Fold this protein.
Amino acid sequence: NAGVTQTPKFQVLKTGQSMTLQCAQDMNHEYMSWYRQDPGMGLRLIHYSVGAGITDQGEVPNGYNVSRSTTEDFPLRLLSAAPSQTSVYFCASRSAGGGTYEQYFGPGTRLTVT
Amino acid sequence: KQEVTQIPAALSVPEGENLVLNCSFTDSAIYNLQWFRQDPGKGLTSLLLIQSSQREQTSGRLNASLDKSSGRSTLYIAASQPGDSATYLCAVSGNTPLVFGKGTRLSVIA
């Protein structure tokens, strides 16, 4: 049971480049979400999904795309990277109902856009 | 819109002291509240989760309380140690994913 995994751990992009941050979980969780963490701003929600085929925007969705074709995977796409997207990105998951709704986090991806 | 506030933003205490971190939230319709620890440059480690029907949870030297009606939670750390130095984050879960406070940065001085 690997929990929530994220790849890559580190990435440097040039302005205008595109890339996909990968997130996978093996706990059969329906809910998955992406956060970014910036100094002084805390963790802010980018996009989230309540199940395969269903996604919704969070607090800071501009510049990011997501899709959810399987329960396990929830990739985050940067279509045209900007320096303002330099941040640490965290993926999280939890079950949709029953239990404690505890949220589990991946180790993060540190992205620098130059 | 749910908003979570943590006070103080930073705290420095001598080793051995008992301390309290505060968290408040604006919408009492929550499923649970989680406290996390984050070390510099690292990810989030879940410390305690309090379900909306509970009043408190304990793990070792940590005790978290929840007063849902007043929108408050506290994290009590007993007999603090230098290894407790980290940022502590409070987050609430409702119909939408977790909403986080900005954290309290704790330094325990030996």
